[in-house]
Amino acid sequence: MTKKPLSRMRKAYLARFVYRCLVLLALILLCIFRPQTAEIIEGTALFASFHWTHLFLYFLWGVWMFDMLFQIIPSKNMYAMGSQKVFRRNFSPCARCEQVDRKALRKRYTKEALKVWCFWGPLTLALALVWFLWLKPMGAYWFLLLFVGAFYVCDLICVLFWCPFRVWFMKNRCCTTCRIFNWDHFMMFTPFLFVPGVYSWSLAGLAVVIYIIWEIQIYTHPERFTDACNDTLKCKNCTDHLCGKF
After folding, report:
1. How far apart are CA 141 and CA 150, in angstroms?
2. Which of 139, 168, 182, 241 has the greatest number of CB atoms lying within 10 Å of its CB?
């Protein structure tokens, strides 16, 4: 049997995964050889001084802002349907859509979100305690930067290979029907909420805005997020094939 080629979207996400791994490696090297560079995430240090290594963090800021902006702007063939299902243009009501209980959908989505928060909340609290009690007095901003970089990679591990949130908490079919797909940047930039600064809060702030927009849309239009209502999300209509299956 001839093996079918990877979809264009999966190839694109695999390329992004390789890029993110390289970014994490660069951050590790930066934090080993020039850890003070990470201090620009605090306050106005972004403008206080300049070193050529700052160019890398400026570049990352631009890439991250670009990625987030395109999560709140409809885009075609650029981002997976798991992210884009929030928009009306990607809603194709199925024959039985009107029979689906939207109140029950909201209740299910709320329960799924609470399960994820029961995991992510304590993890965030533990990180905050480590930061404020031990690392902040030492000025170890590199720790937060590395945590963000690690989650930057883990995000695509969840999309392409294995997702603990799907397996342990939500039990959804795949990323296309994922309830928390656009939580990625909000979770990724959680550590930056601990450090008031132009660099940190501009990224964390936009991530929070995206999270709020996503949650509002789930409450007002829950039918867009399930293949029980939205034909676009059914396996037979999938063009992304991020799961690697055909």
Report:
1. 14
2. 182
